Amino acid sequence: MAVGRRDKTASFRGSRIVVAIVIGVLLGCVIAFLFPYGLFNPAASVQNRRIGKTNFQIGSSSCESSERSKMLKSEIVSLSEKNSELKKQVRDLTERLQLAEQGKDQAQKQFLVLGEQHKAGPFGTVKALRTNPTVVPDDSVNPRLAKILEKVAVRKELIVALANSNVKEMLEVWFSSIKRVGIPNYLVIALDDHIEEFCKSNDVPVYKRDPDAGIDAVGRSGGNHAVSGLKFRILREFLQLGYSVLLSDVDIIYLQNPFNHLYRDSDVESMTDGHNNMTAYGYNDVFDEPAMGWARYAHTMRIWVYNSGFFFIRPTIPSIELLDRVADRLAKQSNSWDQAVFNEELFFPSHPGYDGLHAAKRTMDFYMFMNSKVLFKTVRKDAKLKKLKPVIVHVNYHPDKLRRMKAVVEFFVNGKQDALDPYPDGSE
Ligand SMILES: *[C@@H]1O[C@H](CO)[C@@H](O)[C@H](O)[C@H]1NC(C)=O
Q: Which residues are listed as membrane-spanning (predicted)?
């Protein structure tokens, strides 16, 4: 119905434009006839006087003819004013028609996606769409994985971690913490046989991809960053199968079940690298350029990056588009850092030559989903914050991960109050 309305408006505009153009052309002819040298040409006014003289010679009374010529002149002036006004209207209408044509494709596509149109409600009651619908699950993408997920997932949600033999010891601390909390829905994607065996022998749900998938060569030998690129490719299948994934690095300790602490209202819900309200949730960072004088302060928006090692991603079209965009860029730009790419794709707006992603995002509570900077710089030194029980602690800010992971377990699980003390705020 809305499309019909748009078309009618367009054709109505079209016919008005035609009428306006005809009037304009006719007026132009009249004026061209009366003022062959233009309205504001000094020579033309001489010409006018000559006509006046001719009139004077032919007309019966000089008085009458000068009256008439005055009337004629004022009529012409008003007509030419009308003419320019019409021209302006034609210009406006043409512009609007062009804009309507440009917007039509996009608007129609959106209409098809969103379905029914709504009137806006009263002030303060409107809310934009934030929670996108999930995709229709497609088991044919990977029937073997579909079977595993059916068994492992709870409410179509699960924790997923990638691991190869390089991170075996951390992986053990990782799944021990998950088992201790009693989280059933988690899965290790084994990138080599040894890790697959290791998981099986520890009763850890494990999935190893078919060796024919070319991208897996990266997983077996690759360093941290190469594995990160692979992770976005593999995650896509989970979403296509209709599952929400809580993607987890293995340098993480679980202290509560994270699925009791998610909002599930966004495409991506991520832990932050921020360390306080401002850096985690965003702030106005004023940039000072004194040479600009009165305008020396430029306001900028800043937010510490999302941590691409721990985020919850729902199976929606924007989520899958995000994974594709990140994987594509990581494949093409070999020296790029996956976390930087992940954030750029999530946050950079559309601009000339670039269509930004339209994904809904949410920053997790930085005390509940705690990074190791928050823990070692702030929390452990604050009597009140020390009593917090986070959902997870991610040892992302420190290179001596295994030791600090074990210390985190000692501190939060075994209540050893001085377990964190031997470690400096940062790395040595
Ligand atoms: C940070 O934000 C929370 C929630 O909005 C608020 O309760 C708290 O007081 C803030 N902390 C500081 C230091 O501003």
A: 17-40
- Cα Rg, the chain, nearest whole Å: 35
The dihedral through the CA atoms of 161, 164, 170, 175 has a sign that is: positive
Residue closest to 204 by CA, chosen among 251, 143, 152, 147: 152
- Among 5-14, 305-314, 319-328, which stretch is predicted with the lowest mean pLDDT? 5-14
User: Which residue type sits at 244?
Assistant: S
Nearest partner of 160 among 289, 85, 228, 248, judged by Cα: 248
Res 137 pLDDT > 90: yes
**186 contacts: CB under 8 Å, gap ≥ 6:** 152, 158, 159, 160, 161, 175, 178, 205, 248
Condensed to tens digits (0 to 9), the pLDDT of residues 155-188 reads 999 999 999 999 999 999 999 999 999 999 999 9
What is the value of pTM for the model shown? 0.74
- C-alpha of residue 378 to centroid of ligand 1, in Å: 14
Q: How far away, in angstroms, is 363 Cα from ligand 1 center?
A: 14
Q: Which amino acid is at 72?
A: L
Domains and CATH numbers, the chain: 139-277+306-412 (3.90.550.10)
Higher pLDDT, 96 or 324: 324
Beta 361-363 vs 268-272: how paired, if at all? parallel
Asked if residue 187 lies in contact with residue 145, where contact means CB atoms within 8 angstroms, the answer is no
